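Project outcomes to date are best conveyed with an example. Our students and postdoctoral researchers have been running inverse folding experiments weekly, and each run begins with a structure described purely in tokens. The record below, which covers 294 residues, was selected by the lab manager from last quarter's runs and is presented without edits.
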């Protein structure tokens, strides 16, 4: 477990509202009023800056945008704020703190290894010779290190992350030649670099920070470079009905996206090879492996 003494309490997730109603409602009302009174500054909050460095006024304006999105259901405008958070100081802290590293053992190793078992079965089958594995959102690097030690048939492992500080720290910690850590936005980087024969992996809530349109574009561009395998562990809203509710929707304290991954993958031409839901307490996660052959 890697930690430099930082705690997750030091991370201010940009869209999270106060838990207490008596604090939350006034913040939303005042924030929305300020968005109307200060449209220039409110627009800059959406477009520019690291949210971890926002001052009190900027955070109120951000709460105002959240209030508008809660009413309209249009969360896509706030996606840039989320992306800048993960690329900046918030993402760097997240990759370092001990509480986050502990979740790899508490959640992934204890409850989510079924997705790796299913991926191994696909790799052992005929007709797929893996050229490499790319983890989308490698964070603290623990999952990629684990996969590199378990999946011996894969010659190279690439950790792709928005945060350059996290990528540099991972490269220093794991200098093994089979592991490489790079920085980039997922859709743009993979559009430039993805190759036939790659395996894609995403764990612990990465794709939830993509809009539905971004996810569809990602799955489409990867499906266009077969053969390919995709394994993921992603959170779902507790009441998201995957049989009837095919579109994505906002959920949770961070207002991220609960995606109907089986529906999105099938729409992009992938074949679902493994699907399982795991519930631990209030948490609901989807484990899925999909393939695209020709």
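After processing, the design step wrote out the following sequence:
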């Amino acid at each position: 477990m890697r930690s430099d003494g930082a705690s997750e309490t030091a991370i201010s997730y940009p869209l999270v509202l106060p838990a207490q109603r008596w604090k939350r409602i006034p913040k939303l009302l005042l924030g929305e009023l300020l968005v109307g009174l200060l449209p220039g500054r409110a627009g800059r909050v959406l477009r520019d800056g690291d949210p971890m460095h926002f001052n009190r006024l900027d955070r109120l304006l951000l709460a105002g945008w959240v209030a508008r999105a809660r009413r309209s259901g249009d969360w896509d405008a706030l996606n840039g704020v989320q992306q800048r958070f993960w690329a900046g100081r918030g993402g760097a802290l997240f990759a370092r703190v001990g509480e986050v590293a502990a979740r790899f053992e508490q959640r992934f190793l204890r409850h989510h290894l079924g997705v790796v078992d299913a991926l191994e079965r696909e790799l052992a089958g005929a007709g797929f010779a893996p050229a490499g594995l790319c983890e989308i959102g490698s964070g603290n690097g623990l999952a990629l290190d684990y996969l590199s030690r378990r999946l011996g048939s894969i010659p190279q492992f690439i950790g792709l992350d928005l945060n350059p500080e996290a990528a540099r720290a991972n490269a220093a910690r794991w200098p093994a030649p089979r592991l490489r850590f790079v920085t980039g936005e997922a859709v743009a980087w993979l559009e430039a670099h993805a190759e036939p024969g790659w395996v894609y992996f995403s764990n612990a809530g990465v794709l939830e920070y993509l809009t539905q349109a971004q996810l569809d574009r990602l799955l489409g561009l990867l499906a266009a470079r077969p053969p390919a395998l995709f394994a993921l562990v992603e959170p779902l809203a507790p009441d998201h009905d995957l049989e009837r509710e095919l579109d994505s929707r906002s959920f949770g304290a961070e207002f991220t996206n609960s995606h109907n991954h089986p529906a999105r993958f099938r729409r992009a031409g992938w074949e679902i090879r493994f699907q399982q839901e795991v519930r631990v307490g209030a948490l609901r996660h989807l484990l899925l492996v999909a393939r695209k052959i020709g």
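The CA atoms of residues 2 and 112 lie 21 Å apart. The chain has twelve helices and nine strands. The training component of this project remains on track.
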